[in-house]
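Researcher: Let's do a round of design. I'm pasting the structure tokens now; please hold your answer until I've finished.
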């Protein structure tokens, strides 16, 4: 796997770790025989631990950060000569869906690190709300809800922190945050929901984390799957027509308004 081209296909290659994190196969030869179990990604999460855990759970897809970007790998458990390994292969999707998952998992891991150091987990929430920090990627940001729907972090509009978002509805009347919190209570894994935001479909991914006192929180990130070159062009045309008819001052007010989402 490590020294021939038979198991390499473009960016795809086969890797193997044992359950302790030692590297038994990898095309990056400097990683061979090294123990990477405590290797951290950009967000403080442990990708090799995630790979090993997923393999031991029966195998499947795992999303993590590798070489400063998101990677998705399929892993399986292999037992040979009474020794257990995780064997896998992954690709770089550069898709927002996978970046969203990585952001949430990174935030969960950071909060866990705060607790391991004996610090209150909520101290870690401040990093999630910093607009220039590592948890804001373009239009992707995180927000955190407690069990009652209070916003504990908000990467797009930090001024909302401390307000209650329990009753927030989308344009179809869906109680978005209530659905997120309810689904997380019923699931031991992350969940996805779809809703309308700023007149467009949004997909949000959320995971649950529990602090030292047993209080649960939802860490959430969403993206717009239908955004394309065409939708960007159409919005510019719409704005052009409005500005041509109503003038610069009216256009500035309309485009900047947060009272409605006509030009978002």
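Researcher: That's everything. Go ahead.
Model: Designed sequence:
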């Amino acid at each position: 796997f490590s020294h021939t081209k038979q198991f390499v296909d473009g960016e795809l290659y086969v890797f193997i770790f044992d359950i302790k994190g030692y590297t038994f196969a990898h095309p990056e030869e400097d990683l061979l025989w090294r123990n990477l179990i405590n290797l951290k990604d950009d967000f403080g999460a442990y990708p090799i631990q995630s790979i090993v855990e997923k393999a031991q759970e029966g195998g499947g897809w795992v999303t993590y950060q590798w070489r400063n970007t998101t990677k998705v790998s399929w892993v399986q458990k292999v037992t040979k000569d009474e020794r257990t390994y995780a064997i896998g292969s992954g690709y770089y999707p550069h898709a927002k869906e996978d970046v969203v998952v990585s952001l949430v998992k990174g935030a969960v891991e950071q909060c866990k690190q705060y607790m391991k150091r004996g610090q209150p987990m909520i101290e870690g929430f401040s990093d999630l709300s910093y607009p220039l920090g590592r948890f804001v990627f373009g239009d992707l940001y995180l927000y955190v809800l407690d069990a009652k729907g209070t916003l504990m972090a908000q990467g797009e509009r930090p001024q909302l922190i401390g307000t209650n978002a329990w009753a927030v509805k989308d344009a179809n009347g869906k109680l978005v945050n209530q659905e997120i919190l309810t689904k997380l209570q019923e699931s031991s894994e992350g969940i996805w929901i779809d809703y309308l935001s700023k007149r467009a479909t949004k997909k949000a991914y959320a995971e649950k984390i529990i602090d030292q006192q047993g209080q649960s929180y939802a860490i959430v990130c969403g993206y717009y799957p239908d955004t394309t070159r065409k939708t960007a062009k159409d919005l510019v045309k719409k704005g052009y027509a409005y500005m041509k008819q109503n003038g610069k001052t009216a256009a500035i007010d309309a485009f900047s308004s947060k009272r409605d989402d006509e030009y978002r």
